[in-house]
């Protein structure tokens, strides 16, 4: 364990506004800072930093916590690694501590690096003839194979794990890496067998995972590494470690690994692909750090078009310029380059459509503009698109184009467009009003799954939240709440947090939010951060705290009389009499 006094000093030396501001632009708003959330895509800022409590919270996605939590989440680190990261920023030497998870993470990275070397050597060994033929059949040169570390997993259930064990890696490390699995009989076996191998690197150049592709028609086409301590697919962009070295700020976002590799070989050195089945907000955030423009180069089939639509939605609030590549006569960039060449592909890139052009072109292909019904449907689709997404200048330009394409007068199109803009504005206004209605006290209460949202339950959960907010902002009130039982809390995360607060108070230790981060899960830190954000600027009095304590005492079972000493029993009976007869003296 890292000593608590070390954590306290680290938090004191870490300016959370400066830390967060290195990842997203923050603007002062009173005593807080706000900006676009770095953990999800959004158009308007819902992410706040609170210097007074050294915390952050996003009202859009619910992410929240301290500087340590932020370092964990933004860099995909565990707790100890996040402390080390912040210690490096603060110029603090790390104390000696037992970091089992950190050691396992380091061992997995070493194991993956050795596995990648093994797969590369197998590709170039006697058993790799078929795999070499496959890569060359895909048009890849030896230089490209070396650059991306491509390899071959032998057709064996044990060659890989035996090689790695001989290098000193344990069974636990092999299983944690996803390179090996254990059979029902308890024997290890290789996950990747008779497949060409594609190592996946993080932005720092560490091998964090593998993709294994078959060389024939058998299914599945790909087997990918599972998520591990070092690999989170939703936060990984394939080939970003290579692309980030380019001087270009125009990135090409592809659907598959081989598209990316083929584009790099053809000279397009900013090609990347999202890992996983669909693009994520975390991957968009990663690209935002390197790209000013992203060209969507997805396949031309239906699945590719759906992926394009999702990507446009995710990128819309990012501030990155988005264009969409249409690939005539080919399924994907790899096929186009092989048949038409790199120069022609470069021309395609320069002529890529912006998102409005792309969506209007799709609508144009969908309807028959030679018929009145087709023209009306096309106009209806495009006007709705322009009303929702286009700027006034774009609406003016595209309204003229619609008039030319359909033969409908510009005045008629302008009138329809003006009405659609008003309708869209009213719709947004109604949604804003609905959102405001959801901001009452009941909307701020988070009940556990399975607990009915009755008035009694909501009241108890709200009291628990406010109690924690009061204690974390006014620690001098802690003694007043010491009689409460943490195990009786309705919300388990709040009960756990309250128990830690009482434990620290009794030991004479501080219990601000930052000091709890090492003992609470991410969900608990996010919940506490939300509670503090909702109560920002509120000063709690002892009377406020007593109201919450009284409300919670109604939820908790009274102590059995048999377990009370005489003084406790006398006091308990006196309190009962006082409740029944408020005007009667307590000792009467």
N-to-C span? 54 Å
Radius of gyration: 30 Å
So, CATH architecture of the largest domain? Alpha-Beta Complex
The name of the CATH topology of the largest domain is DNA primase DNAg catalytic core, N-terminal domain
Describe this protein's structure:
The structure is a single chain. Mean pLDDT is 85; it is low at 436-440, 557-565 and 582-588. Helix content is 50%, strand content 11%. The protein has 588 residues and is α+β, with helices and mostly antiparallel strands. The strands form 4 sheets. A 6-stranded mixed beta sheet has the order 12-14-13-15-16-17, with helices on both faces. A 5-stranded antiparallel beta sheet has the order 1-2-3-4-5. It has 5 domains: 4-90, DNA Primase, Chain A; 100-231, DNA primase DNAg catalytic core, N-terminal domain, CATH 3.90.980.10; 246-351, Dna Topoisomerase Vi A Subunit, Chain: A, domain 2; 367-436; 454-557, DNAb Helicase, Chain A (Orthogonal Bundle), CATH 1.10.860.10. The chain has 25 helices and 17 strands. Helix 17 (372-389) crosses helix 19.
Summarize this structure as a short list of keywords or feature phrases:
588 residues; alpha+beta; DNA Primase, Chain A; DNA primase DNAg catalytic core, N-terminal domain; Dna Topoisomerase Vi A Subunit, Chain: A, domain 2; 5 domains; six-stranded mixed β-sheet; five-stranded antiparallel β-sheet; 17 strands
């Amino acid at each position: 364990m890292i000593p608590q006094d070390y954590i306290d000093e680290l938090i004191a030396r870490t300016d959370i506004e400066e830390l967060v501001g290195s990842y997203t632009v923050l603007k002062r708003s009173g005593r807080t800072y706000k900006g676009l959330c770095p953990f999800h895509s959004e158009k308007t800022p819902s992410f706040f930093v609170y210097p007074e409590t050294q915390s952050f919270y996003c009202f859009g996605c619910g992410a929240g916590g301290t500087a340590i939590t932020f370092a964990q989440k933004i860099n995909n680190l565990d707790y100890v690694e996040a402390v080390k990261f912040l210690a490096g920023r603060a110029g603090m030497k790390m104390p000696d501590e037992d970091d089992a998870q950190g050691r396992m993470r380091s061992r997995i990275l070493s194991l993956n690096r050795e596995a990648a070397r093994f797969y590369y050597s197998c590709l170039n060994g006697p058993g790799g003839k078929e795999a070499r033929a496959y890569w060359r059949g895909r048009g890849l040169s030896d230089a490209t194979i070396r650059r991306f570390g491509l390899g071959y997993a032998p057709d064996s259930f044990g060659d890989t794990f035996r090689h790695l064990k001989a290098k000193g890696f344990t069974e636990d490390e092999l299983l944690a890496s996803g390179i090996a699995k254990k059979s029902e009989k308890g024997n290890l076996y290789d996950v990747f067998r008779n497949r060409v191998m594609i190592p996946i690197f993080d932005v720092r150049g560490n091998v964090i995972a593998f993709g294994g592709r078959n060389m024939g028609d058998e299914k599945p086409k790909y087997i990918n590494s599972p998520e591990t301590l070092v690999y989170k697919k939703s936060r990984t962009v394939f080939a970003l470690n290579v692309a980030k070295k380019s001087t270009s700020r125009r990135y090409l976002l592809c659907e598959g690994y081989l598209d990316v590799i083929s584009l790099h070989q053809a000279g397009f050195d900013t090609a990347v692909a999202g890992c996983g089945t669909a693009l994520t907000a975390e991957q968009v955030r990663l690209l935002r750090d390197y790209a000013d423009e992203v060209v969507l180069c997805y396949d031309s089939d239906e699945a590719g078009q759906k992926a394009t639509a999702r990507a446009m939605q995710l990128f819309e609030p990012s501030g990155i310029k988005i264009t969409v590549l249409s690939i005539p006569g080919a399924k994907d960039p790899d096929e186009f380059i092989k048949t038409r060449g790199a120069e022609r592909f470069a021309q395609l890139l320069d002529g890529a459509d912006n998102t409005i052009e792309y969506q209007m072109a799709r609508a144009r292909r969908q309807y028959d503009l030679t018929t009145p019904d087709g023209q009306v449907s096309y106009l209806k689709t495009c006007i709705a698109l322009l009303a929702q997404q286009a700027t006034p200048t774009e609406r003016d330009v595209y309204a003229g184009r619609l008039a030319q394409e359909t033969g409908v007068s510009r005045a008629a199109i302008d009138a329809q467009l003006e009405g659609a803009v008003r309708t869209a504005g009213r719709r947004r206004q109604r949604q804003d009003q609905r959102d405001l209605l959801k901001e009452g006290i009941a909307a701020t209460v988070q009940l556990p799954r399975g607990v009915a949202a009755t008035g009694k339950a909501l009241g108890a959960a709200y009291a628990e939240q406010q109690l924690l907010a009061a204690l974390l902002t006014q620690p001098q009130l802690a003694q007043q709440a010491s009689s409460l039982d943490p195990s009786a809390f309705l919300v388990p995360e709040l009960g756990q947090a309250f128990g830690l607060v009482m434990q620290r108070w009794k030991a004479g230790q501080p219990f601000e939010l930052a000091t709890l981060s090492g003992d609470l899960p991410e969900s608990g830190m996010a919940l506490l951060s939300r509670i503090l954000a909702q109560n920002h600027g509120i000063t709690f009095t002892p009377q406020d705290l007593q109201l919450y304590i009284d409300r919670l005492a109604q939820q908790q079972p009274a102590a059995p009389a048999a377990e009370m000493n005489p003084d406790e029993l006398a006091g308990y009976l006196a309190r009962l009499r006082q409740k029944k007869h408020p005007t009667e003296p307590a000792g009467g």
